[in-house]
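Work Package 3 (structural annotation) set out to generate three-dimensional models for the target panel prioritized at the project kickoff. During this period the team completed the workflow that converts sequence records into discrete structure tokens, so that structures can be stored uniformly alongside our sequence database. As a representative example, we reproduce one entry of 148 residues exactly as it appears in the project archive.
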Amino acid sequence: MVDDSRAEEIADKVYNLYNGYTSGKEQQTAYNTLMEIPPPLLYRVQHHYNSHYEKFGDFVWRSEDELGPRKAHLILRRVERISRYCRALLHSAYIQSRTDTMAYVFCRSEEVRPTSNVWHGSLHETRTTCMEKLISVQRSTYGNAKLR
């Protein structure tokens, strides 16, 4: 699940932190921000940064220049852990996030059994109640054209 609009916001924030004189506090804020987000989101931050601000230097070069090679390497190494399949999806021009509702069945035994390690206790019939419940699941849709 990748929130692409959040990735774009973070790319803008990082650009503003890197732009002009970068104080130690701004460097630390940029570093913390980039280290706290999950690797797929970091990949999209890099994508948006390069697509909007590459004329000022690409993401890798600017990160090394502003944060130093050690911190930049720690950030960028996290992106390398993403699988090829996931990278291909994250390379999509547009990513749309949505929440789907899915049904599942929840079952439980209605009998209270004493807590013992006697195996034959499981041979007795038990009354089980099942009910259908709903769960919300966040998903991403990937494509090369803007989705409706």
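The first helix runs from residue 4 to 18.
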